[in-house]
Structure prediction request, 367 residues.
Amino acid sequence: MQPINSKIVTVILVLILLMVLLYCYINQPYRFSIISAPLSELNEITKTNRSPSSEQKAITPNNRSDPTHIVTHEFHLVAPDHLQYQQPSIVFGRTDVVMVTPWLAPVVWEGTFNPNLLDSIYKLKNIRIAATVFAVGKYTIFLKNFLETAEQHFFVGFQVHVYVFTDRPLDVPQVKMSAGRQLTVRSVPNSQRWQEISARRMELIQKLIEDNLHSYADYIFCLDVDSQFHGRWGTESLGGLVGVIHPGYYRDDRSRFPYERRPESRAYVAPGEGDFYYCGGAFGGTLEEVHLLTKTCHTNFIDDAKEGIEAAWQEESHLNRYMWINKPSKVLSPEYLWQDFKPRNPEVHLVRFSGVIKNYAAIRPNV
Ligand code: UD2
Prediction:
């Protein structure tokens, strides 16, 4: 009888050990993300999982005090407990616009999100936003308005680092910035062709991310300087890869989109293809996604140039080709880049950011 008893005890002990191991495995933080996320997301997990602020410690879910339990992954949205806000509905809401793409990315319109809720969620993550803006040659005249209105509307209350790329650093205006916000000026050469200035942005943004940003920002937005903010642009715009629908074409059939139509170009989009026409003047997302986008568009632009081809709308054409294949995980409606010369359409309840009216002949180095 004795050996049988000890065998039973051993089996029971092994079973208990297995159950403990299973329990630990199930409760391991990030288990699902780490196993299933692609490499770029893994980088993000590590990078954004830095020590929490005192605010984070205080409101960590389930009152856990161990900072390793704070999940900062983009797709894990933790709201502070006891936050009061209007009850959401899945049967009432805007009916005049489409709020989701066929690949189930949200399309952001005024009235489709709760700004306070989103800000509360992202405050816990202690996020940092980088923004790039190019002001080469006479385009420095747009900087003051751009920077001043960004202070009033762009990620207010969050850590923001604006990078101004210019060939005229002395012309960058002094703009008073709130706590947690800063501006860096980077020198770039001028060019005799506006097409080159516009297109070179992809390469310089790629380099900025590689050289400087990895430990300083979580998200980046790349914006045209001849623009101004009028309304909130904030946490509702965050996503992996973020595209902005161009205000000029969103009611048109795709056959009218000004995609690059020559098959020889790497920016080519064939007839009957393409989802939306996206702006070159505003795009963004996580550092990893924007790095891949800018690197791909820059490489394709250079390879086209070697074969004597320049896409119809330079980097904007390459960006449109890229986003046809690599679907944005969030799409911003034309509220996020309107044009001042265009009367507001009824579905646009709020213009948040818009291109100012400009005299191309007076400000570009070539026509
Ligand atoms: C559209 C796009 C722009 C770009 C361009 C095609 C929008 C609203 N705008 O604008 O992003 O894709 O088509 O190339 O989607 N710049 C200078 N100095 C110059 C010329 C350009 O700094 O001499 C910079 C500046 O940041 C400017 C940007 O390049 O905002 C784009 O140039 P643009 O505004 O002249 O191009 P535009 O209006 O045709």
